[in-house]
Specification:
The chain is an alpha+beta fold. It is 38% helix and 21% strand.
Amino acid sequence: MTRGPEPVITPTPTIGDETRSHDDLAPTYYVICWNDPVNLMVYVTHVFMKIFGWDRQTAQKHMLEVHEKGKSVLVREGAEKAEFYVHQLQGYHLQATMEPVR
């Protein structure tokens, strides 16, 4: 006698009330570029495009913010990636820092 196909059993997901608190998440940092009297605006735009892969319009927006407001928050990243970006910007002689997100 032939047997029919085995029934497929689909597990049901368990939905809990647990949520991760803000403290459980990995800390993130803002990468900030500061205005300086040395670098030309076109150079800063070029560096932003090169490091972050931004189009010209996005890079110019941040460059103008640096120029007009004194600083621009460029990205929000984890510690290692933020530090990497800061070092890259500093390698192009731009003044950059990282600050923890609060």
